[in-house]
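Progress report, Aim 2. The chain analyzed during this reporting quarter is listed below.
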Amino acid sequence: MGSTVLSLRIDGELLDRLRSHAAKRGMSVQDYVVRTLIREDFDERFKTAVDETEKFYGEADGEAGARPPHPAIT
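Predicted structure tokens for the chain:
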């Protein structure tokens, strides 16, 4: 996967906070922002996957449509 340049105009106070967060982790602001966006994207995709799994199998509390017990566990 290649990379693309993204230019952002952000508030000076926000940039100061980003610099502080990045410095605490020994990272550049660019790396900190990219890792934060990657984590947020993962969290969103993970939540969607969990929601879809719950729709497919039903809620874990035993509501209708819940996944039947595994035959070997009876």
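The chain has a mean pLDDT of 84. Residues 29-57 form the longest helix (29 residues). These observations will guide the mutagenesis work planned for the next reporting period.
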